[in-house]
Structures are given as structure tokens and as C-alpha cells.
Amino acid sequence: MVATAFTIGAAQEQARQALKGMSDSPGQQAQLILADLLDRPRAWILAHPEFILGEADKRSFGVALARLTNGEPLPYVLGWWEFYGRRFRLAPSVLIPRPESELLVEKALERLKLTPPPVKIVDVGTGSGCLGVTLAAEVPDIRLAVTDVSLETLHVARRNAREYGVDGRISFVQADLLEPLAGPFDLVVANLPYVPSSALRGMPAGRREPGLALDGGRDGLELTGRLLHSLPGKLSPTGAAFLEIGADQGTAVQSAAKAALPDADVQITRDLAGHDRVIEIRCGAHA
Questions:
Q1: Same domain for 105 and 57?
Q2: How do residues 161-188 score in pLDDT, each as one tens digit?
Q3: 236 and 118, same structural domain?
Q4: Confidence of residue 286 (pLDDT cuts 50, 70, 90)
């Protein structure tokens, strides 16, 4: 008996059946896996449903689909996810980059246009390095430090920096927030864990992504509060800090920031969905 050829179309149908009730976009997930396996653009996958997969690719697709049906997020299955137009390599120890965090990049880039060089910059709790690496790639003449408490996570960030040719301009520091670093910094960016511990237990992300990268303590503000408390001794008199926050944390973090830096201009920026997303702290002349 001649085996039925396993085509791109058949692979997508298999994914739709396997992920029914588990995913809102099983076809899209299948397309991304196939594009990655075959090293083709997603548009090519869509245009060639009749293309026959080889045995090795068929097996690899089956393994990837099994991981998805077991609840593993697609970015971990792929081993990468896109952020600000670039692919960032991931590992299970690293938080999946979110599009909302691109607002931090935009705010930081706006600030850098107003800040004469040399500029001292730090990305606190870097994770995959998506913030720090993106800033270095977007502004070729800057140097910066990135910190993370996890050495394993710093290895991922360094790999991403190397992939975009910016590792020579980034210092990778294993640190608890800003503790061992000497300021003052002209720009601080941070996407720290901000989910309350009790809420995390009921979230799908809490079961699928590293707790260390999500758990913000009892009120979700433990790490953010500690960072704010350290800023008076770390931020330059004309510096700025941009911190990502939870959708309902704007007022609380704004109050804490004003208490820590009474003379700074502190504003809340909302994301495209209208949720509180970034606390902007501006000191001195450019406030």
C-alpha cells in the first residue's frame, strides 16, 4: 500500500483537529511551525498547501504539535518570538516578550533623542534581552548594561545580543536589580515581574512561563517598589526611568515614584488597549 503524502495542507488540518478547543488560531500556529521547519516565509506556506513534507520534517512537525497539545506555549516550541521586528531566542527560563513592552522601547528611544552623549543606560531584569538589545540595535553609538538575577537568563540575552552584533556594546551583569552597579544612570528601563502571587496561580502564564519572571509578590509591586526606592541614588539629576506595570497599578506606582523622587515628573502611559502600561519618570532639564 502506498502511503499518503503528508502535505502542508494535511499538516494544517492535523493541527486544527489536535488543537480544537485549545487554541483560537491552530492554523496560524501550524503555519509558523511549518515556516520555521522549512525555513520559508509564512506567505509561502499559505501559497503551497500541496507541498509534500519529507519524513524528517513530518516527524519534527509531529513533535512540535505534541508539545502544543501538552500546553507548551508556541514561542517555546519555536524557540523564538518576535519583538520590535526582530526574532529573540528563548528558553524555558525566559519570559516570552509581549508586544505591550514595545512601548518601553518607544519611550526610551524618544528620550535618547533628547539626551546628549555619552549616555549611561541600564536595562533592569533583562530576561531575553529584548529591551536592551533592541535599544543597542536601534541606536548604534550607545553602550549599556543589562542585569538579571538569573545567570541562565543572561546567557540567553547574550546570545540574542550576539545574533544582532551588539554584544560588544552591552555589559551583562548578574544582579539583584541595580544593587552592584555604580550610577548615576541617564536612562533606566525595566520590565520587572508585576503579577501578584495570588493572581499568578490562576493564570495560564503562571503554569507555562517562569514564575521568577512573573511573580511580583503579594501586591505585584515588590520588585518595582524596591527599584523605585533605589533610584534616588542611581538616577542622574537629568535622568529618566521607564517601568512597565500592570493594567491596574498606575496610581499606586505613580504615588510610590513621586514619594521616591519628589522633584521628578511622573506620568502614566496607557497601551493601545487603554490600560496603564508604563510609568514615566523624568528628572531635571528634560522633564
A1: no
A2: 999 999 999 999 999 999 889 889 999 9
A3: yes
A4: low
